[in-house]
């Protein structure tokens, strides 16, 4: 018996040991796989649009330490490698150890076109490919340049009005740059944005290696016709061949012809001359959507080659079945080598006002493709949303403060039941008391209703003539008078009253209700006393009787038939 127990314990220990080893192995595999996936190799290029002769700086960086040397032979087909430099770095931040490896390369293109820096593999991790656009050298070959010179250029000579034009200014020098200054150019009747400021690189010009400082501006002509960019100048000092030399260089003026907006462009659309335009939206709805819910729709209009201020504002109007409350649009601009990328972002709150299917109309933006010289459009198709009734609408959902039920008075019972005479007398007294009370209440109500029917419904003294089927609205308004202001509770009650009596409204009521809607769904400030004003409006409108009411329904005889209405 003892040996069987020992065998069983031994088997359990072996099984437990295997389980621990398997668990440790899985943890080790998980840690190793996590480290592999965490590794990355990044490649950064100082500029992606170059000319023949330009020198490109490329930085290759790993987020792990390695002694491996990357294979750069794939670069030699399209680039000359002028030099490479390797460095390593170790950082300890808050006790976390991190090491890096880095290679700095200097390349110059061998040919014109779209050249590719292929993926590089380091430590089993591969980088992303990068494309460099190479154009011809605008320098006149064979023309000898001095120790310094200044040049300017534009990317378009015949742009459309308000189209983006890039103006580039470059200062070339040999030797060592000491100091200098340049004034921003003047673009008459144009909006200007600085794109790149004093970007430094090197360029081979006729066999001589120049240091280059480059500035780029984007300007948007606001008037069609001829336009002249005046000459630019640079004043400074360089040290060349051991001597300090003052330099003063100047460019030639540049002329361009600004074209007007094409006649084929729609007259009712904002003029958008761009390289690319995209229109997208995001609709955030609850599930399901009910009357009174707020639906958020976010519109995004992006353009390449325009400022965000040039993008049109979206126009929204209330439609059948819903109200719209647009937020103020936000503008975003991003500067790139190729120009400006812009975005206009706008959020709209959409509030359904009736159950059924609500259709959001299509949105179309026209724009002029400056690459193809053609009219194009971006369209968001119409969207249909199914709207359900408000919660518990069949049970008067806005009656959140249900009045306590009225209990009928119970007849007083005699505490003594010794004799049948007293019991009979008490029962008879109770019956007589109930009959007399019922008759009194009947005549009192008839007198009260008749009196109310003869009072002028427009009188300010009786402005609180509330409809009997909306006690919650009356209680909410009474609470508002007592200082309990609850806009979110009051709004659905008002909406229910408005749906029941659509003919009872005026401009004052509409103005106050619009202010309440803007507060609830657009986060607008609620003017003081708006809730009180709405309650007063509803009370006055409820007291008004339709003109046809005197001809239909039961007519109450006047309380004093011999008197004549004043």
UniProtKB/TrEMBL annotation:
UniProt-recorded name of the protein: Protein BatD
Keywords: Membrane, Transmembrane, Transmembrane helix
Transmembrane feature ranges: 421-444
Domain of life: Bacteria
Presence of the UniProt keyword Membrane in the record: yes
Pfam families assigned: BatD
Sequence segments annotated as region (Disordered): 543-566
Keyword Transmembrane helix (UniProt): yes
